[in-house]
Task: inverse folding
RNA sequence: CGGGGUGUAGCGCAGCUUGGUAGCGCGGCUGGUUUGGGACCAGUAGGUCGUAGGUUCGAAUCCUAUCACCCCGACCA
C-alpha cells in the first residue's frame, strides 16, 4: 500500500463524544466512525485490524475441526416462538415486519437458526458431533450503548455451536473450545483470564467467560494464585458469603477489572428439546441432542486491545493484530528522486517477502508522518531520507521505544519477515 | 425508562445571561520562505447556528414542541 493512495483519516483534535481511551484513539487514528448510537463503520485501518483478529479466530476454530458457515441476520419469529425466546428475550431483540406483516428479528445470537439448520439435515447419530461457527454482525438493541465499539448495538461476533449425542461428547468438545480460546487469546497477545460465570440469558448448565484485563473493564473479577478467576456473583455462591472483601482476604484472591471478550456455554438440551431436535442412537433409542455454544466479541477485542496497549502517542498494537507490520516513511520523497526511488525499492523488496508494508509517500513533513503512524500504532517504522538513500540503510524505530538505530536493508527484511 | 448534559464550518470550541444577522483554534486550498519530530508569512474557501413553530421591526440568542448524540443507573459478546 502507498499512503498517498490509501484512505487515512487521522484527526488532531480529541473527539468530543469519546470518554474512554480506546474510543478516543479509534476515532483519532481513523479506525471507525459512528453512524448512529451503537453503530460504527470500519474505515480501512480499523477493518484491517478486525480482519487480523477474525483470521486468528478462524484458524483456531478450523484447527479443532469446527467448520465455518454463514447464517442470515434477519430471522423469522417462528423459530424464536418455538424456543420460547420470542416472549422472554425482551427489548434487546429488535423486531421488525416484512411487507406481508410477518414478524422477524435481527439476530442477536443464533441458537434457533442453527438448531433449525441442523435438524433439517441430521439423519443419523453417525453424523455427530457437528461443530460449526460463523463470524458475522449481530444486533442487540442495548438499553444504552456506550464506549464506542466496546458496547455497540451492532457488532461482529464469532459464534460457534456444537451438537452431540451425549453429555460426554459435549464435555469433550467444551474442553476443545476452551483450549482453542486460550490459543486465540494467547495469539492475540492480550493479558486475559478465564473465569467461571453465569450462563445468563442463553441458558444451560456450565459456562466460562474470557476477559481481557483492563482498568476500564466493566466486570469485576476475583483471580486466584493460578490466574483462574470468578466473577462477583459466582464468587458469592462459591464461597458462600456476600462479603466480597472477606472472600478476597480469606481465599487470597486479587480483584481486577475485565472486559468480557469471550463466553462459552454448555447448553445441554434446552434448544434441542424445545425445537424438537433428536436422533436415534445405536440402540434406536431417541435422544435429545446435547448442545454447546461458544462466542467471541470480535469487534470488542479491538477496543480491549487498545485499552491494554497504548501510550501518550497513541495505539501500540500487538504485532499479531497490527494493521501493517511496518511503515516506510519517506522524507521529502516528492522533492528528492533518489529518496523516492530508494523507498520504492525497499517497499518492493519487503512486499516480495510477503511483509505487510505501507509506504508513506505523502507530501507532508516527517513529524506529521511520524505522529500519524505512532497514533495508528504500526509496530515498526523505517525512515528514509537522503542519507539513507546514499548509504542504502534505514533509520529504524520500534513503536513504543524512543531510540532509533540504523539498519541495513538485509537486517530490515530479516526483522520484519520472521 | 429515570437523572444529568450537548447540538454553531471537516474536527474542537466561543458567542446566548443583557436579541441588531456569526467568530476563534486546528484542518483544507493558493503563493512564497522553510524542511531529519506536529514550521512560518500572506491570502482564500467553507456555516439556512439540529429541526419545526412562536414572540419581535429584528432571533444562534427569548418561548414552545420535537429530533439526535453523550454521560450516570438497570441489561449484555
Result:
Amino acid at each position: 500500500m502507498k499512503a498517498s493512495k490509501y484512505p487515512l483519516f487521522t484527526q488532531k483534535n480529541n473527539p468530543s463524544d469519546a470518554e474512554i481511551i480506546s474510543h478516543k484513539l479509534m476515532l483519532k487514528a481513523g479506525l471507525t466512525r459512528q453512524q448512529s448510537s451503537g453503530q460504527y463503520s470500519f474505515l480501512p485501518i480499523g477493518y484491517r485490524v478486525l480482519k487480523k483478529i477474525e483470521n486468528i479466530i478462524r484458524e483456531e476454530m478450523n484447527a479443532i475441526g469446527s467448520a465455518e458457515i454463514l447464517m442470515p441476520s434477519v430471522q423469522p419469529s417462528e423459530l424464536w416462538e418455538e424456543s420460547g425466546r420470542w416472549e422472554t428475550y425482551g427489548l434487546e431483540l429488535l423486531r421488525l415486519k416484512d411487507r406481508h406483516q410477518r414478524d422477524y428479528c435481527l439476530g442477536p445470537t443464533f441458537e434457533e437458526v442453527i438448531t433449525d439448520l441442523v435438524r433439517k439435515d441430521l439423519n443419523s447419530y453417525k453424523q455427530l458431533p457437528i461443530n460449526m461457527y460463523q463470524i458475522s454482525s449481530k444486533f442487540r438493541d442495548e438499553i444504552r450503548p456506550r464506549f464506542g465499539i466496546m458496547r455497540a448495538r451492532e457488532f461482529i461476533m464469532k459464534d460457534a455451536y456444537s451438537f452431540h449425542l451425549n453429555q460426554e461428547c459435549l464435555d469433550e468438545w467444551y474442553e476443545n473450545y476452551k483450549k482453542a480460546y486460550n490459543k486465540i487469546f494467547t495469539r492475540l497477545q492480550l493479558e486475559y483470564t478465564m473465569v467461571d460465570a453465569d450462563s445468563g440469558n442463553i441458558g444451560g448448565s456450565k459456562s466460562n467467560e474470557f476477559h481481557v484485563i483492563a482498568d476500564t473493564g466493566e466486570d469485576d473479577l476475583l483471580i486466584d494464585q493460578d490466574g483462574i478467576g470468578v466473577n462477583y456473583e459466582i464468587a458469592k455462591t462459591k464461597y458462600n458469603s456476600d462479603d466480597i472483601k472477606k472472600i478476597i482476604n480469606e481465599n487470597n484472591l486479587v480483584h481486577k477489572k475485565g472486559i468480557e471478550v469471550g463466553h462459552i456455554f454448555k447448553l445441554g438440551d434446552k434448544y434441542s428439546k424445545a425445537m424438537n431436535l433428536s436422533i436415534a442412537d445405536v440402540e434406536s433409542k431417541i435422544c435429545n441432542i446435547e448442545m454447546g455454544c461458544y462466542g467471541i466479541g470480535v469487534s470488542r477485542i479491538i477496543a480491549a486491545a487498545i485499552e491494554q496497549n497504548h501510550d501518550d502517542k497513541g495505539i501500540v498494537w500487538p504485532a499479531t493484530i497490527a494493521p501493517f507490520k511496518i511503515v516506510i516513511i519517506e522524507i521529502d520523497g516528492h522533492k528528492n528522486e533518489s529518496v523516492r526511488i530508494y523507498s520504492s525499492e525497499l517497499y518492493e523488496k519487503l512486499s516480495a517477502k510477503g511483509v505487510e508494508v505501507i509506504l508513506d509517500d505523502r507530501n507532508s513533513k516527517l513529524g506529521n508522518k511520524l505522529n500519524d503512524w505512532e497514533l495508528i500504532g504500526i509496530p515498526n517504522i523505517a525512515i528514509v531520507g537522503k542519507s539513507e538513500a546514499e548509504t542504502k540503510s534505514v533509520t529504524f524505530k520500534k513503536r513504543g521505544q524512543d531510540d532509533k538505530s540504523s539498519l541495513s536493508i538485509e537486517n530490515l527484511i530479516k526483522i520484519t519477515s520472521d
User: Anything to note?
Assistant: The first strand of chain A starts at residue 32 and ends at 36. Residues 324-416 of chain A form a domain with the Rossmann fold fold (CATH 3.40.50.800). Residues 202 and 262 of chain A are 14 Å apart (CA to CA). Chain A has a mean pLDDT of 93.
